[in-house]
Amino acid sequence: MKYPKGAKPGGQNAAGIRRRKDKEVRYGSRGMTLEKDLDFANSFYLEHGRAVIHKKPTPVQIVNVDYPSRNKAKISEAYFKVPSTSDYNGLYKGKYIDFEAKETRNETRFPFINIHEHQVQHMHQCYMHGGIVFIIIKFSLYDETYLLPFEKFLPYWERFLNDGRKSIRYTDIKEDSLSLKTGINPRIDYLAAVDEFYFENGE
Amino acid sequence: MKYPKGAKPGGQNAAGIRRRKDKEVRYGSRGMTLEKDLDFANSFYLEHGRAVIHKKPTPVQIVNVDYPSRNKAKISEAYFKVPSTSDYNGLYKGKYIDFEAKETRNETRFPFINIHEHQVQHMHQCYMHGGIVFIIIKFSLYDETYLLPFEKFLPYWERFLNDGRKSIRYTDIKEDSLSLKTGINPRIDYLAAVDEFYFENGE
Question: Is the ipTM of this complex over 0.85?
Answer without folding.
Answer: no
